[in-house]
Amino acid sequence: MTDTERLICDDIDTGLIEGLTCALVQAPSENPGGSEAAATGVLIEAATGLGLIAETDEVAPGRPNVTVTWLPPAATGPGLMFLGHSDVVPAGPNWTGDPYRVRRAVDDAGRTLLVGRGTTDMKGGLAAVLAAMDVLRRHDVPLTGPVRLVCTVDEEEHGLGVRRFVTRPPDHTFLGCVVAEPTDLTIVRGCRGASYIDIEVTGRAAHSGRPADGRSAINAAARIIGLLSDDQDRLAADPDDLLGFGTWNVGTVHGGQGISVVAPMCSLGVDRRLMPGESAEQIAEEVRRRITETGIDCDGIDVAVTVTMEMPGFVTDANHPLIDTARSAITAQDRAPSVGGWTAACDGGFISRDLGIPAVVLGPGNINTQAHQPDESVVVDDLLIAARVYTLMALRMLG
Fold first, then answer.
1. Closest to 98 in 3D by CA, of 188, 39, 28, 199
2. What is the pLDDT of residues 137-165, one digit of tens each?
3. β-pair type (314-315, 187-191)
4. Please, are residues 202 and 302 in contact by the beta-carbon 8 Å criterion?
5. Largest alpha-carbon pair distance within the chain?
6. pTM score, whole prediction
7. What is the residue-wise DSSP string for 96-156?
């Protein structure tokens, strides 16, 4: 780091990071089950109190997207975008304390943790971004473009917030987008996407003593599951070096009328992970074609295949300046930078696909060992390191 960079990074307000993380967690925003208004209210109050520009867009009642911007004087060039979300998954059972009352703990490595729902995914990341924006503003750094945080609603469910955001082109251009999701401070340059597909099978009821008089929707659904399993084998045979391959998972099965009745209906809730460039609707159309080709939807069996959610995947070129800048910022924290792919999905796919802004995912916390589980936690030092990385990225891309 240069002397100026070190001076600025050393002035990041650690109290702001911890205090805002706690305040955001203690404003519950479970999805499904509520709204994000309380948490976004905390974020807006913090941002305006720091002299940043905060704007809202009500996506649905009690569900506002928030954008926070630091626009240095005379900054007319492209900016740097940060992306996060205000919702969290439901707390669920088996917590050792109140999930919405943040408490401190120490892990086996002696590191101090903040424990609470959303500390890792991803209210700690939001706090780290805001702290980076705050220190840049306080030092009045002459950046060439704006630094903006976009905080969307409904990321954990159907992506209502980011879908709305990408329909309204930003008032600035951006060199890149950093998604502050928990990656354990590794640099993720590509993510698979995700989609939900409902498959509704309709048959004909009959007495179970004469099953040939009816048409079993459950039997037809079982054949469809076999088709998906065969397709999974095909996908696994040709993995991508960075992201592996798309996957099928039948997550729910509901059907039948009674044990003594030939099942007149059966529904499958299916998750299909998407590779960059794949379309959930095209995949659903291929499933429809295969169902017809194999003769499942005939002789009294009807099948409807419907896409109910799609989150696109993305990949950013390994040699893009955004990757190089992230790598150098991590190196400046005396950490060996790691660049790779992610099997999870995030809102960054919409930013990349629909707005054409290169994206990386880079944030504090571990999505596999800390997020979406009882006693979710984040390492306090990692929040500070993330804020320093975000600060350096803005300085080096816009300085």
1. 28
2. 999 999 999 999 999 999 998 899 999 99
3. antiparallel
4. yes
5. 84
6. 0.92
7. SS-TTS-EEEE-TTS-EEEESTTIIIIIHHHHHHHHHHHHHHHTT---SS-EEEEEES-TT
